[in-house]
Automatic annotation (TrEMBL):
Signal peptide: none annotated. Keywords: Cell membrane, Membrane, Transmembrane, Transmembrane helix. This is DHA1 family inner membrane transport protein. The chain crosses the membrane at residues 20-38, 50-70, 82-101, 107-128, 140-164, 170-187, 223-248, 254-276, 288-306, 312-329, 349-369, 375-398. It is a multi-pass membrane protein. GO terms for molecular function: transmembrane transporter activity. Pfam families: MFS_1. PANTHER family: CHLORAMPHENICOL EFFLUX PUMP RV0191, PURINE EFFLUX PUMP PBUE.
Length: 401
């Protein structure tokens, strides 16, 4: 067997994916942008902050419900159509948000944004997975995930600054213009015969094809592990601010800096996960239990954040937490793009849907505790270890394949 050092060097042409990478950055920015703007938006359209938060719910619910169906369409009819349709809808949705003068229009525009992301997101991951060389597939997906996280680290603060200088609507206009500018790149870089035509349409009728990923033993285990990991990861993250305020009485400004650590950890984890995965596959070890590794690291990160001695250790725990998060998501996307090529977009969409389902379950479980710190530690750390055990089962399934 050829060793890693003897393997031929495969270059990764990042510019080839400039269009989809720009779109991922904008998606990452838009997903997290509402949170810091919520008070300003609520005051502008004369509703309560809790009512304005329905715009966030609309985005998440629409994405979670429609992503598998739109992923199936991408698998059957090609990436280019799904990407172009999603990009155009994203332009319209952000323009609609910028023009919103009442809650109904804002919620509808955010729901349309969720539909746009549900159409384009799975198609993006599938496009990268099937066009990047095998030797750098993980690196390519990791860079895409890192750019999505960069939208949180850089895009959200920039959007906040723009909103502070020119009003909250200007942030959505900037997203509108940025997305429209990415469309010519997508048209040039994503070939017309992409996706379904290259690997064959997803098998069976619509319902059978939609659920086909759950019929594959490896994908089924991966999706179940994804649900549990997300309950631990993002379910606990829902209460991260409350935990840090309870422990250290941090200000709102300080919590904003914690958000930068969250994004930085995610970026580092995404890049590390892609690189480790590529090296493992180059060495003929595609069954390396990386998912289990990220589960254990997540448990350690949550424990340090909630019970670590002092603020510095707790913040180090936050970084470890989200390094694990970024690495896990990247490896899951790589697995979904490799195990069943004819189901790439559908599998990627199910990853997102199960992520949202797990997040909701985890947040509910943590919220059921009278002490938020105890709930975050018990639910987050315990479920992270359960996900690590599940990751070992996924690796065992890959070994048998």
């Amino acid at each position: 067997m050829t060793s890693v050092s003897e393997a031929p060097t495969v270059t990764f042409d990042r510019l080839r994916y400039a269009g989809v990478f720009v779109l991922l950055f904008l998606f990452g920015t838009e997903t997290f942008l509402i949170s810091p703007l919520l008070p300003t938006i609520a005051e502008s359209i004369a509703v309560s902050e809790s009512a304005a938060a329905a715009s966030v719910t609309a985005y998440v619910l629409v994405y979670a419900v429609f992503a598998p169906f739109l992923g199936l369409l991408s698998d059957r009819f090609g990436r280019r159509r799904a990407l172009v349709a999603g990009t155009v809808l994203f332009v319209l949705s952000n323009a609609g948000a910028a023009l919103s003068s009442d809650l109904t229009t804002l919620v509808l525009s955010r729901g349309l944004a969720g539909l746009a992301a549900a159409a384009a997101g799975p198609a993006i991951w599938a496009h990268i997975a099937e066009t990047a060389p095998d030797a750098v597939r993980g690196r390519a997906l990791g860079l895409g995930m890192a750019l999505f996280s960069t939208g949180q680290v850089l895009g959200v603060p920039l959007g906040g600054l723009l909103a502070g200088a020119a009003g909250w609507r200007s942030a959505f206009w900037a997203l509108t213009v940025g997305t429209a500018a990415a469309l010519p790149l997508l048209l040039r870089q994503v070939p017309a015969q992409d996706g379904a035509d290259a690997v064959g349409a997803a098998p069976g009728g619509s319902v059978k094809a939609l659920l086909a990923g759950w019929g594959d033993p490896v994908l089924r285990r991966a999706l179940l592990v994804n649900t549990v990991f997300s309950a631990a990861n993002l379910g606990a993250f829902t209460f991260l601010g409350a935990v840090l305020v309870q422990r250290f009485d941090l200000s709102v400004e300080a919590l904003g800096l914690v958000g930068v650590l969250v994004g930085a950890g995610s970026i580092a984890g995404s890049l590390l996960g892609g690189r480790l995965g590529d090296r493992a596959r180059a060495a003929g070890r595609n069954n390396l239990p990386l998912l289990a590794l990220w589960g254990v690291l997540l448990a350690v990160g949550i424990a340090l954040t909630v019970r670590g001695p002092g603020l510095v250790v707790a913040l180090a725990g936050v970084v470890v937490w989200f390094v694990a998060s970024g690495g896990f998501v990247t490896d899951q996307q790589t697995l979904a793009g490799t195990v069943a090529p004819e189901l790439r977009a559908t599998s990627s969409a199910w990853l997102t849907s199960t992520m949202y389902a797990g997040t909701g379950l985890g947040a509910w479980a943590v919220g059921s505790f009278s002490d938020v710190g105890d709930g975050t530690l018990l639910v987050g750390a315990v479920l992270a270890l359960v996900a690590a055990l599940g990751g070992l089962l996924v690796s065992a399934g890959l070994r048998r394949n």
